[in-house]
Amino acid sequence: xxxxxxxxxxxxxxxxxxxxxxxxxxxxxxxxxxxxxxxxxxxxxxxxxxxxxxxxxxxxxxxxxxxxxxxxxxxxxxxxxxxxxxxxxxxxxxxxxxxxxxxxxxxxxxxxxxxxxxxxxxxxxxxxxxxxxxxxxxxxxxxxxxxxxxxxxxxxxxxxxxxxxxxxxxxxxxxxxxxxxxxxxxxxxxxxxxxxxxxxxxxxxxxxxxxxxxxxxxxxxxxxxxxxxxxxxxxxxxxxxxxxxxxxxxxxxxxxxxxx
Length: 260
Fold this sequence. Notes:
The protein has an eight-stranded parallel beta sheet with strand order 1-2-3-4-5-6-7-8, with helices on both faces. By secondary structure, the protein is α/β, with parallel strands linked by helices. 47% of the residues lie in helices and 13% in strands. The chain has a single domain (3-258), classed as TIM Barrel (Alpha-Beta Barrel), CATH 3.20.20.140. Keywords: Hydrolase, Lyase.
């Protein structure tokens, strides 16, 4: 089974399904999103959408109300294509530990979703993820954390430390750790419950090295609409040979992790 480990809700959702079909991906992990760059028709409108993204990643738009429309879109997409999308739900990180635990129990575990994410702690504040990991441990859920900018090298170190504190929780660093991809590979390699998702890799040989170092814990992903599922799959296939390792990266590991 080929599974795109990282995708965001598209408008319209049928465009996302078409991309997955073209890439030969049977399923995709689906995260909610507040920005919609795929709606942009020109540079000015793209700039507006990317400003929403920057504010979200920087922690300036973390109020619960800012998530509601995104959650509604996410629920609608999951309902429309339950056999194609694997639902993960993000959690606002400015809530108390008790509020986070209640939300994970009610809106993720009881709702039948498969995991938590994509979490976007502000730069330098990856420690905010800890209450989510605690809640995830209680329900046997994996957690996905944004790995590219503005995530810092220090944030990656913090995430690895937290992963070691919660060894039963699968912790996925997305986007290959961004500019800090070499350190991300080392941290994931040396932390048995961490995984590295390969979307939007800055250079092709970053993917080659990641798969070589951690073949059992690297995950094919596109980060669509920011990346393209076809190109992401081609990159993995370009740097691997047919066989078990490639099959695991393209979906086998994630299917095993999620019990699919």
